[in-house]
Amino acid sequence: MHPLIHHQPDPDHPGWWTWDVTGPDRYNSTIGKLLVRAEGPGRARCRMFPEMLQSNLGDAVHGGAILTFVDMALFAGGRLAGTDIAHAVTLDLSCQFLAPGRLGTPLDTSVELLRETRRLAFMRGLVKQEETVIASWSGTLRKAGEQR
């Protein structure tokens, strides 16, 4: 686990853990509170709580906020799904937006580890709000190698 990530049980959401990156001056703070939980081998779930700060001009969840959430889920959810990605970068991320997300209602994304190699981790998932599928995504993380 990266030393700047606070990961502990969330007292307000039993069964969920925090995934807080230290400092409000980091880009990660733009999506607000992020929670994670493991859901069996190769699976995890992440949750965000969209508010006005994450809205677009149509008062729906901004697509950029959803992409940021998914990118963070690659790391947080990937870690809880069992990947060894303490130091990695996003190699690619594909997202299909299927419905608008509403403000004030949590967004969840499933994280499924499809395959992991020595240098890569392949994942996919669905972003849902209650029973509505908001987006579908797939992404790849490249694990950091030795520094040269």
Fold and architecture overview:
About 10% of the residues lie in helices and about 40% in strands. The chain contains 1 helix and 9 strands, in the order βββββαββββ. It has one helix at about 65-80, and strands at about 5, 15-20, 20, 35-40, 45-50, 90-95, 105-115, 120-130, 130-145. The strands form 2 sheets. A 7-stranded antiparallel sheet has the order 2-4-5-7-8-9-6, with helices on one face.
Topology:
Elements: E1 5-6, E2 17-18, E3 20-21, E4 34-38, E5 43-48, H1 63-80, E6 88-97, E7 107-116, E8 120-129, E9 132-143
Antiparallel strand pairs: 1-3, 2-4, 4-5, 5-7, 6-9, 7-8, 8-9
Key words describing this protein structure:
globular, mainly beta, Thiol Ester Dehydrase, Chain A
